[in-house]
Amino acid sequence: MDTEHGKVGRPRSERAREAVLHAVDDLLVETGYAAMTMKGIAERAGVSRQTVYRWWSTKAEILLEASAADAEGELAVAPTGDALGDLTAYLEALVNFLANSPAGAAYRALLGEAQHDPEVAKLLATKDVLGDSARQVLTQALPPNSTPHTLELATTRLIGPVFFTLMTARDPAHLNPTDLARTFLATRES
């Protein structure tokens, strides 16, 4: 049994899985979300459509898995004990992820699709790519109970300015991660 997706069948070939995840990233950049098809993903990955459908039901599922896996590495920040430095490093990684990374482009595409496709919206609710990474950094960078707000609100306050700027097609060059981190630290007690 494939425990990750709960489907019965042959065990997933890691090489085929990686090929599919790379193919979906490449196709998104080349053709965009709307033009991407399961058939095109399978052809690009060099696997059969049956192989793709055995593990994923939709292109959105593949894209979310690819984006989430890449985000874990791209948004990871090793704690240094310096809250300002750790939050700045995270915000720099977040800007780069959302503005420049193929995985970030995939995530943005899914967010856009979720605005009019309830199934994609439901899928996105299963994995909070940005929130998970921000919560991890916050729990590592800040002392326990150092803010009167919930971790959820602190997460929103940390990633909100970056998310808003990039999701509304504003120029990310105007974002200063150090200033954003300073502002976050100064306002977390208010």
Topology readout:
Layout: H1 14-31, H2 38-45, H3 49-55, H4 59-74, H5 83-100, H6 102-114, H7 118-124, H8 129-141, H9 151-167, H10 177-187
What would you note in describing this structure?
- The chain has two domains: 14-57, Homeodomain-like (Arc Repressor Mutant, subunit A, Orthogonal Bundle); 66-187, Tetracycline Repressor, domain 2.
- It is elongated and about 55 Å long.
- It has ten helices and no strands.
- α5 (83-100) packs parallel to α9 (151-167).
- Residues 1-6 have low confidence and may be disordered.
- It is 67% helix and 0% strand.
- By secondary structure, the chain is mostly helical.
- The chain has helices at 14-31, 38-45, 49-55, 59-74, 83-100, 102-114, 118-124, 129-141, 151-167, 177-187.
Compact description:
This protein is an all-alpha fold and 190 residues long.
Structure keywords:
disordered N terminus, elongated, 190 residues, single chain
